[in-house]
Fold this sequence. Notes:
Layout: H1 9-14, H2 20-33, H3 38-52, H4 58-68, H5 73-79, H6 93-97, H7 105-124
Amino acid sequence: MKHLPVVSFKTMVANKKLTTTDALDFLHLVKTKYQDNREIYDSFLTIMKDFRGQRAKTCDVISKVKELFKGQPELLLGFNTFLPTGFEITLSDDELTSNSKFAHFDEAYEFVNKVKVVGQNHTSN
């Protein structure tokens, strides 16, 4: 299997303003990752609603998300994209390599984009 150069989600959006589509794409990845455990996805949505409604501080959100996505470094690092400047989830080398059997966030994001392109081509034909 040929691997493309890894470009992080954060790098992909670093040079542009984040959009609602970026957030929805990330939500879709979380939902797909936890398709067999809807409770985690629902908990993530609750955390985000509380943050958006200013009922949770950034530090608390980071702590909850880090626990919720434990063992999923691609989601944790992808979530950094949406954190305010000065905040970042960091992972140890062990945390980064502990889940190597799963696709990396970047690969999943690339896959979602390919599906979108195929879908757009299919509907325009």
